[in-house]
Amino acid sequence: MSAEIVPGAHEWHIPPSQETGISPGRKTRLDDAAALDRSTGSHFPSALRLEIESAAVDNNVDRSLVIGSYRASLSPEKAAEIRRKYEDRMFYIGCIHGGSPELLSHLNELADAREADLPDTVFLGGDLPGAKDLSTVRQKKLFYDNLMNRVNLLVSQNPDISPAEILGSTAGAAGTESPTIRAGAIRLLRFAIEDMGGTKLTDPGDLTPLLSLARQQMKAYPVADLPAITDETPPDGVLGTYISWIRQAVAEPPAVGLNSGTWVKTLPKEIRQNYMDQYEESARQLSLPLLKLKGRGVKIVWIEGNEDMPAGQDAISHGLDRVFDTQKYLEGMGINCTKEISGLRSKATYHILVPFNELKYLGNVPEDRLELIADEVSQARSEGLEIIMLAHHHLDNRRHAPGRKPGKQDVLMIDNLKSLIHRYRPRQLIYAHQHGEMPEIPDVNAKYAYDHTMVSYLPLESIGEYDAPAKHPAGDRDFAGPDQPVKRIL
User: Fold this and answer.
1) Which superkingdom, per the lineage (predicted)?
2) Residue 380 in 3-state DSSP?
3) How far apart are CA 119 and CA 299, in angstroms?
């Protein structure tokens, strides 16, 4: 594998199947081989050994996986006990943003699992705060993908385009919820009233409450050069001006133009209060399975993402009577957030934890702390522990946005992440931050390489499982070693 991934030469590593194919027919042959060995009185099970070797070759897996699966077919309880003794089981979870019912259900099932099936550690990849049913993610998608990315592209192509032409354009409609930009603006305003504010509109065709909201926002943060809006202004006049206002309003000086967060800041207080209350309820629901897992001896490790920092909710909480801080709430229950680059040992691994903010400002991280981690990595490697880096940022922008030039912040953070990889040489990098699947990925379990590091990405609410063997040869190991990498289970 090349150290750098170049456009047009994306190399993917698809791990062998993590199933050994112990079908009924295969199990019968293994049983027959074992019986043959017993009948001959042999203490060297040659027939069984040959059948295991054959199964491993047929399924392109290490023979230890065949042995494990065969043992599990004979005694699932005993196999689980052995796994707990000789393996280090870890679950990794991507961005949560409050959590959907599906994810919460999965976490509750995990928290109620048999003792032998519990993971040793659950790693939370960051961005836990959010409103109910992933409304936080939906709001960003409606603001950017459904509306403003399309508007900005049109204006960049034709600076003189009129508001009417913008509203009627279908550019960029593929994969969005709105055929026209006009429909995108209406969808965003409706979402603010119904999903964020909790007020259900009875007449889908009545634009009056939507236009009223737009007027309120524009009045609260006026832009001098825009046309005046009166009660007689037709709907498309209001919507056209509203889109221009989003591109020019100043909610957090000196930035001109609103982003998803500052647009939320311009919403009326009552909408933002209801939205903030949803954050509290989501955090309470998320805490239940996490606390149950913690109470059963599972270590919960949470690295800080960009949305975990208190500033991530400032736009919502601005001027509210009741303010909720997800991080403070969870930490009060003993679910602590890792805010500094640090190391964590387990019986089979050494994790290097890389939160968003310290990665962003890597130059400000004390050198003696980074050097201490280097010493710990060296010691862990000499003991045969696997070195794994968990970060809240992507490594290769082209994996997530092919053909799109990354912004300055992404370039900086990717360079910083590469420097940490070169310094510590982890066998695996696992990261969250982006939400969707990588567009060109051939398989959800496919990996890519950077130098000698295998790279695994955790999309929004995904869960990856990794069973690290507790005994490894000391020293470096290439990413194409015999044990299996992180496997997506959700």
Assistant:
1) Bacteria
2) helix
3) 9
308 with 301: CB under 8 angstroms? no
* 325 closest CA partner among 307, 340, 339: 307
Asked whether the beta carbons of 265 and 320 are under 8 A apart, the reply is no
**Which domains, ranges and CATH numbers included, belong to the chain?**
86-129+279-459 (3.60.21), 134-270 (no CATH)
Write phi, then psi, for 450 (nearest 5 degrees).
Answer: -130, 115
Tell me: pLDDT of 262 over 90. yes
- The neighbour count for residue 101, using CB atoms within 10 Å, is 11
Amino acid at 122: V
Q: What is the amino acid identity at position 425?
A: R
Both tokens of residue 294? 């913690």
pLDDT in tens, 395-451: 999 999 888 888 899 999 999 999 999 999 999 999 999 999 999 998 888 899 898
What letter does residue 114 receive in the DSSP assignment? Answer: -
CA 119-454-387 angle, 5° bins: 55
Check: CB of residue 388 under 8 Å from CB of residue 427: yes
188 three-class SS: helix
Helix orientation angle between 149-157 and 181-191, rounded to the nearest 10 degrees: 150
Q: Which of 305, 313, 307, 225 shows the shortest CA–CA distance to 265?
A: 313
Residue given tokens 């913008």 in the structure block: 166
Helix (H) or strand (E) holding 419: helix 408-424
Task: Flag the least confident range among 10-24, 206-220, 333-347.
Answer: 10-24
Dist. CA 392–CA 437, nearest whole Å? 16
